[in-house]
User: What shape does this take?
Amino acid sequence: MSSTSGSAAADGHHDLVGQPHDEQREGPLAHAEAEAARISEPGAPLGTLGPRFNRRSPFLIGLAAAAGVAVTYGLVLVLTDLRGVLIVIGLALFLAIGIEPLVSWLVNRRFPRWLAVTAVFLAGFGVVGGFLAVAVPVLAEQVMQFAERAPAYLRQAVAEHSWLARLNERVELRQVLEQVLSGSAGLVQAGLAVFSTLADLVILLVLTVYFTVELPRVRTGLYRFVPHSRRPRTILISDEICVKVGGYVLGNLLVSLIAGALTLVWLLVFDVPYALLLALTVALLDLIPVVGSIAGGVLISLVALTVSVPVGLATVGFVVGYRLLEDYLLIPKIIGRTVRVPALVTVVAVVLGGALLGVVGALVAIPVAAALLLITQEVVYPRLDRA
Assistant: This one.
């Protein structure tokens, strides 16, 4: 049977190459032809699977390494091109996790999830919309006044401070600022920046709504990637991380509102110009840990100096006093119970986050640091202690 099948294989090969079998046997493939005829059997007419390639072959090792480098380089290029989109998606997920405690609170009171999400967002839109309805006319008027008076403020500053005068001589700072504030090119660039920011905010809002609605399914899908034996502990650690992120987002928002409200009251009492605009700026800057409140305090102190030196010095004292109040009372009471991060880790995390992702990195630095600390304490340290 074997010789018959071998003859058939040989005949088939004769038909394929169009040469007599005797002539083919005299060529360099004679041994391979004979071996092909021998291994062709009824159960495996095309022969059996041969041995695998040697994975330790220098060629295969080099090929695998080159392919790995090429794939990694391609992924880096893709991530670099999609950096802006990925930041928006990540921030939307971060905000959705931050809103989740409010949604869960309503769900636990027998609200359907869709109704709980709708109620939370409608309440947020109502608060923001009401504030904008009251504040936008005042803000628009104050912004226009500031834009008109900014060149005069700069001329006064240059005349009073010698280092600003030297800086103005070198880079013509005053002319640049006047062009930015009054020139059409500056207005066009400002308009494009505002349009781009609004577009990003709309995308961020839509993604946040979708992530909030689908957050249970997103978490379930991510948990499926974890091996079954490790899944229960992963769920516990992940839920604790979500609690920390949610507590930080809501707490940081509350602290920033307090900062803006107290600043507004102080500026109105001392009749500092642009009070509402400055208070809103302080509230937004206070969302950035560590450096945000400092920047806001320096800003309102400089503006208060335009009223009088005593008002400026009093504002400096107010800024220092509020900073102590925020660091030692508000943050420990509102945020510290949920997110416990040492001061050194906080500063390092904010600096690194700001260097990597700018303002967004600084905003999410503390909850990310808290999550890493939790994973280190619950996973890394125990394994090292048992090693």
In short: The mean pLDDT is 80. The chain is about 85% helix and 0% strand.
